[in-house]
UniProtKB/TrEMBL annotation:
PANTHER family: CADMIUM/ZINC-TRANSPORTING ATPASE HMA2-RELATED (PTHR48085), CADMIUM_ZINC-TRANSPORTING ATPASE HMA4-RELATED (PTHR48085:SF5). This is P-type Zn(2+) transporter. Its EC number is 7.2.2.12. It comes from Paraburkholderia rhizosphaerae. The chain crosses the membrane at residues 12-30, 36-55, 67-93, 192-211, 231-250, 256-277, 561-585. Residues 117-214 form the P-type ATPase A domain. Residues 625-756 form the Hemerythrin-like domain. It is found in: Cell membrane; Membrane. It catalyses: Zn(2+)(in) + ATP + H2O = Zn(2+)(out) + ADP + phosphate + H(+). InterPro entries: ATPase_P-typ_cyto_dom_N, ATPase_P-typ_P_site, ATPase_P-typ_TM_dom_sf, ATPase_P-typ_transduc_dom_A_sf, ATPase_P-type_domA, Cation_Transport_ATPase_IB, HAD-like_sf, HAD_sf. GO terms for molecular function: ATP binding; ATP hydrolysis activity; cadmium ion transmembrane transporter activity; metal ion binding; P-type zinc transporter activity. The lineage of its organism: Bacteria, Pseudomonadati, Pseudomonadota, Betaproteobacteria, Burkholderiales.
Amino acid sequence: MPRLFRSVDGVLLAVSAGSLVIGVIFARLGDGALAHALWAAGASPVLVALLVSIFRALRRREAGVDVLALLAIGFALGLGEFLTAAVISLMLASGRALEQYAKERAHREMTALLSRAPRHANRFESGEWRRVELDAVLPGDRLLIRSGELVPVDGSLIGAAQLDESMLTGESVIRQRCAGESVSSGVLNAGAGFEIVAAASAQDSMFASIVRMVRAAQRGRSPAARLADRYALVFVAVALALAAGSWFVTGNAVRALAVLVVATPCPLILAVPVAIVSGMSRCAKRGVLVKGGGALERLAQASVLFFDKTGTLTGGRVRLVAIEASAGTSPESVLRFAACLGQASVHVISEAVTIAARERHLVLSVPCQVEEQPGAGVKGEVDGHVVVIGSFAYVSSFATPASWSAAFLQRLAYEGASAVFVGVDGCMVGALQMADQIRPETPRALRLLRQEGISRLVMLTGDRRDLAETIGAMLGVTEVRAELTPSDKLAAIHAARRDGTVVMVGDGINDAPALAAADVGVAMGARGATASSEAADVVLLVDRLDRLVEGVRVARQTRRIAVQSVIAGMVLSFAAMAVAALGYLPPLPGALLQEVIDVAVIVNALRVLRIRSSATAGSLAANDAERLRTEHIELGPVIGRIRELADKLPGLPAASAVEALTGMNDLLADKLLPHEQRDDLEVYPGLARLIGGEDPMAPMSAMHSEIFRITRLLRQLTEGLPPEGPDAGSVREFQRLLYELSAIVHLHCAQEDQLFHVLGEGA
């Protein structure tokens, strides 16, 4: 508490406490006059502080119960109740000091970010590393982050790195990040030194944006506090009426003083701010940055949630599906040019392109003269070539469209896929087809949001209706609004606000108008923090939708605790005022009782800091979760070959069909079956202990049994084929089994990925 006594409230507490104690000593020694003078002197600074506080409140056109404290102290001094005045002053000063201490404690997680802002960066210039000011860093610069240093700007990893992201995410574990992945400014290098390609300047990076938002959040004033002020008008009127009535009926001014004493200060203005700030702090610790108390309260009252589809419900694991290349250009060259330039962008698709190139062991160059147009594409120089990547419209403005582009665009429309077009030196040389997958945590997050009382879950998208409704059915959202323009999204949000408090979740700068229109705008993850966060009220620093569930849960519990504190404190205060008006509670004991009430409501409000944001019993070790995900990535080509063989089997010659089926059986025996057997025997028992209950992995093990049955049947049928190969009926049977196996393995891996994601992140 030493820092407390450097504040005005701390000084007032020290002065009022010192004068009260010394006055009591002199009163015991028989010098009543000096004791009275000391008690009056100790009350005077508090009286002045109250006058200043009331004057400032009036200038803001606000009201409060400070007027009751002013009247109580002044009335006590006027009646010669100097000891009572001193006790009231001490009571008020201690309440203010305790409130200040509680707020400082609650702000701890939020303010910790502000002290860690990096100041310099190590940039590669003229063949050597040079220390430069952070403001000098530009997109495309090659930077070195030594062990123990903070990443200065957002960028793309050139090599592997071990990162401590706890300051941003609230998770105190070391994360292994691979080459090509995006890395956010503000995270700590917990391993050996590594290099990144800067994707943004310092001002446009995530950490700087977060610092700005934290400062704005600390300056913000909760509407709950303003609401408390409005209630305070009623409270003040009741207290004054009760005090005046008791004086008028009995003619005893001391009773009126007693009423004023127990009404000072009001728990209403103590409990609400402490609870709200504590709730914001609790959210920040879990990677949910709430920019103000008002946003926290509105989030607690949310009943309608709108989601942008791309990058919010989907976009967690975008992957490369196919490469289209012009004549004379190899697919690897198209991918390499795109990945080189993609290093200088933190967009989710750029990250996926870079990772795909690293997985194919392509050597990437560092781009220069990078210019990015958010939502459209990136332009820069790679190995002396002018390269542009992005949407078809964006690339076409710099490069001549290819002959294959029209047919490729039509195929994308049919499949509902996205693409990165690539232009080199004024010519469109290729395109990368990307698949936008549903985030692993999305289905679980939507289920939990319904449990938290969200009645409507609405997906907004500009995609075709058939594609949007397919995804909506998979996720179980309440409504699907497809083929929307930005103005259509705004209209939908405005209309829904008539039905309740609306939350809009988005991830890009194109979502900014919708985020601003909603009652609560929520920006997703690292991209949201640097793109649409200025329009958002809440930023999820972790790129996970289920963190929104934690934010809603904390907000609702915060509001509930604040209301509990207010009701309990007000009831006790009114009861004490009634007892005082009847003459059973003198001013001095009343002051002590009110102090107990104030402390009780503040301590109750601080319970917000102990809110449990998650009910998960345990979590996988980070390296185990990463290993399991890697194994599934390695299984991807196997699953793809199952479907590929099923598609082409009818057109294969008999001998080739037998050879292909034999090879498939060998592949399944070497890759798929050992993986599933190892999961059943080694992985599932550990997961069962984490989840709890009796045999919680039984449904997953049953899918293993079905996989084993189909693979065994495939091998038996293959071994029983005649020398001339399969007939038409056998081909159909093989196709049925292959399609069935492909679907089951795909679904099973998706379920395991979701389970690993939940348990592996400590959600």
